[in-house]
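re: that complex we talked abt at group meeting.

here r the seqs, copy pasted straight from the sheet so there may be weird spacing, ignore it
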Amino acid sequence: MVMTADAEGSTLQLRDVRKSFPDPGDPVNRRLVLSGISVSLAAGELVSLIGPSGCGKSTLLRLIAGLETPDSGELLIGTEAIRGPSAERGLVFQDPNLFHWRTVRRNIEAGLVARGLLQEKKTEVDEFMRLVELEAFAKAFPHHLSGGMAQRVALARALINHPKVLLLDEPLGALDAFTRMRMQDEVLRLWSARRSTTLLVTHDIDEAIYMSDRIIIMTSRPGRIDQIIPVELDRPRHRSNPEFLQLRGEILNLLHFAGGERMKSGNANVPVM
Amino acid sequence: MTPRNGEDGTALILPPKPRPVSVAASLRTLSIFAGSVAFALVVHLMVARNEPLLETRFYSIFLGSVLLIAVITAPAQIVWPRLRRFRQNLHPILTAAALLFCLWEVITSGVRLLPLPYFPSPPKVLYNIINDRVLLFDSTWHSLLLLLSGYALGVIAGLITGLCIGWSPPVRYWGMPLLKVVGPIPATAWIPLAMVVSPSTMFSAVALIALAVWFPVTMLTASGISNTRASYLDVARTLGAGRGYLIFRVAVPAALPNIFIGLFMGLGASFLTLVVAETVGVKSGLGWYVSWAQGWAEYGKVFAALVIMAAFFSTIMTVLFKVRDRMLVWQKGVIKW
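got the structure back, here u go
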């Protein structure tokens, strides 16, 4: 694995971010989704976000992407406040969302075309096709691709813009277990090659430990940060390493999924799945 | 780019290869077609003894040439596999057609089951097509001009309004009720008004055809655009897309299958409106020809015009299908047609 010292990524700071949505069942009050989220990501850092469904992980990603605006609080990329979506913050969903009317190559080019840079950076398209090992499928349409291949195209499409921040919303969630583990290495390889600051939403504790520098654990209703756990294991990591397993046990305990003793009643932090 | 991806069979889903057909079997089936044409020819020659030779000889020549082609292509397909597949595919339908023509001739000229002159026999229809070819061609040409100008106008207007209604919520709020109230009125119902208002029948016919096309194209374009997956637009925004890109490179291509349904519905509506407009107002075209021939009780000509219309309209429909197949090549394997 090649680690480049100069990261393409940039710092990401969230200061007391709140977000609420209209409640369909309650016309007067709004439903608070995120309450006072404050966290800083260093440039080139890979941080995972885990927590129960409905804790606002995806909303947080959409806020950083600029697709939603917060009720209050600050979101900063470097020193600049986030105002609306931009090519400097790439987003990859669980569904690859490939433009199904375009070939693999045209999908990967999309960001360059959108910014009017295709002529200038044509060689980069080839470079990214190679990077995700899809040169042979340049002219294939998305419905010809397997799930893992489609997700590699989606990653290349986001990375071709050299985003300062890469937002991954459960990108491997729909893949089978083996493809998933292979793709975790793939994402790590792309991340270490380009060093975008990466925020990864996942439901998979193993994935979070295997991949990230830090793990943010969120609780729900309203969503807020419960704990931030640093993962101080050397890369490349081993899933069967005792330290790995110990950390896994700790996080499972935190989330009350360790088994044996069931959740204690009355605990405000009990995640609701 | 080199066509590398096609060679990699692992990830590409290819349609199953057609089963190879044995030569003897296809010879047998092809001889059924040749036999049915020969049968039709014999029946025709028997029936036509009572008819004027002038009117029946074209049909004799026609059946004779079909028979000749059938006999020649039967051995030719042994050495030419493409022809074999083509014939293999078509021969049941061609056989049925030959027998249907035969039946039609027996019922009309043969046993005179149907009242004359309303139901002419196939030889008489063919005779009229050939005999009146100049006027028929002229009528077809005028119909084509009228149809294309009305259709093009309707499509352009429909795409623009559909795009605006589908993309912009305020336009949808104000435009949709109007569309829902005015759109379903059949274009032909406007004919009385159009005749009073417009300077010429030609102009009003173009406007009516355009109106008939405009409604379905607008409706389907609007629904296609407004149903664009929100996540496509989100992804495009995070890739740095501006509004023009979102509309013309994401929403419109995503809506194309819908838009083509609108184009097909519009085409059907335009045929109907064309024929009605030509029947009641415009003094040229195939619709006019039919009503003119009917006025003179020349039902051979009426049927001749119907045959030409069938060929004309289905050709235009086929052209639109081909255009769609080209533009929606990415759908192959996703949607069957």
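couple things i noticed - Confidence is low (pLDDT under 50) at residues 1-11 of chain B. The interface with chain A takes residues 1, 3-6, 8, 11-13, 229, 231-232, 234-242, 245, 249-250, 253-254, 256, 328, 330, 333-334 of chain B (CB under 8 Å).
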